[in-house]
Amino acid sequence: MKLMKLKIHGYRDVAPGTELVFSPSATLVLGENGTGRTTLLELLALVLCSDFSGLIHETFSLEYTLAFPGMTLHIAVRNARPSSPTPPEAGHSALLPLRTPEPVREFEPLMEVTLQLEAPASRMVLRADASGVSWEVDGQPAWSQSMRWSLLDRTVWIVLFMTAQYLEPQVKDRLKELLRRTFLLAPTRFDEALGTFTQIGKSQYGMEMRGDEVFPLGLMGLPTWMPGLLRERVERGLPGEFIDIHPEDVRPSFLTKFITLAGFSTGRFRVELLDKRSYEGGGRLEFGRFGFDFTRSDGRVLTQEQLGQGQRRLLSFLYYLDVNEDFVIADELTNGLHPRWLEACLRELDDRQCFLTSQNPLLFEHVPLDSPEDVRASLIHCGVRLHEGRTQWAWSNPPEELATKLFRASREGATSRGALLKAHGLW
C-alpha cells in the first residue's frame, strides 16, 4: 500500500487547496520551526489509518489516493457544518412549531471511497453520510441501508469491512486482501523525542481464543511476530508471571539488531502476563509492563532506565520498524543518533513508504533520486503565508523547473544535496 496524493480542502491552519504528491519510497519534509512539519506528519498518520475520530468536533475536508497491488482507492472524507436551518414560514410563530423539530446536528460528516480494481476491471463506490450508507458496483446500485451509528466514530477501513459483508460473494471476495491489510493498519508518528520509547513501557495487549481462532482485543502496536510467540509461550506453560524474549528466540528482530549496533553482548525483552482466563471453547490473555535489560561485554547489566538518550531512540525506532511493515512516519529521525546508527536505520527501511522530517541535511543524502519526478515527490517544503490578514501554513512540492535543476545538480555531484537545498531556499 502506498499513499500517492493528498489534497487538503480544509484542515486547521493549512492553506485550502493544498495538493501534495509523495514518493513511493522516502519523502523528506523540510521547513523552519513553526511551519507545521509535525502537524503534516500527524495528518499523514490520520490519513493512513483513515481514522478521523479525533476530528469529529471540527471541520475538515480531505481527499487522498492510495495504491494497492491490483487496486487504486480514492477517498474523500469531510466534516462540515450544516447549512442554515430553513426559517419558519410566514404566519407561523417560531415559538409554536407545527411539529417537533429534529435536533440540530453540529456537523454533517461525509465519506466516499472509490475502488478501481484490475484484472478484471471493476469500479466500486461506497458512499456514507449521517443518514445512510450505500454501495455501487460498475454504476449499478448494490446495497444500501440507513445509518444507525456515528460515521466518524469508525475508521474508513471499518466502514468498508462492515458494509462489504452485504455485497455479493464474488464482489466481496475481491476486497479480502484490502481488508486484511488495512483493518489492523495503524501507523503512528515516531516522535522527535522519547515519546515512542515511553509508550513501549506502557503498552498493553490482549487476545481472545475461540477454538482455533485468535482475535486481538483492540488495535495494538506490537511487532508482527509477537502475538504468536506470546500465545505459544503461555500454552507451553510459564514458570512465573513473566515471558522473557531473548535474541535467539526471534531472528531477525529489533532486539537482535539493537544489541549488535549498540555493542551489547546480549539482552532481554520482558513481558508480564497480567491476566489469564480459561473457559469452554477458548480463553483470554492480557499482557503489559514491557521492559528491557542489556548486558555489556564487561558483564554489567543495564536496565532500560540506564540507557542513554541515543540508545533509547535507536531501540524504540527498531521496535517501531518491527511494528510497521508498510510505513514509517518519523519526526527528526537524526536526533541523538550517531551517523553510523542513522545509516543502519535507513538501511532497515527496506521498501516501506517513509515520511521523514530532519534539520540535518545528512538524511537527504540517502534518499534515492532517479529522475526530476523523484525529486519533486521526495521533497515537501513547509512555509507560511499571509492570506486576508491570517497566517496560513503553505505546504508544497517543489515546482517542476526547480526539481529538474536539483536533479541535474545532484547528478553532477559537485555540491552536496543539503547545500543545493539551502541554495534554493528549501532548507
Briefly say what this structure is:
By secondary structure, the protein is α+β, with helices and mostly antiparallel strands. It has twelve helices and 19 strands. The two termini are 30 Å apart.
Oligomeric state of the chains? Answer: single chain
Helix amount:
25-40%
So how many helices? 12
Please give the number of β-strands: 19
What is the molecular shape?
A: globular
Helix and strand composition category: alpha+beta
Low-confidence stretches: 88-100
What radius of gyration results from the CA coordinates? 25 Å
Largest sheet: 8 strands, antiparallel
Strand order of the largest sheet: 2-1-4-5-6-7-8-9
Number of domains: 3
Percent of residues in β-strands: 25-35%
| Chain-averaged pLDDT | 88
How would you describe the overall organization of this protein?
The protein is an alpha+beta fold and 427 residues long. It has 3 domains: 121 residues, no CATH class; 112 residues, no CATH class; 129 residues, no CATH class. The protein contains 12 helices and 19 strands. It has an 8-stranded antiparallel sheet. Strand 4 and strand 5 form a beta hairpin. Helix 7 runs antiparallel to helix 8 and helix 10 packs across helix 11. The longest helix is centred in the last third of the chain and has 15 residues. The chain is globular.
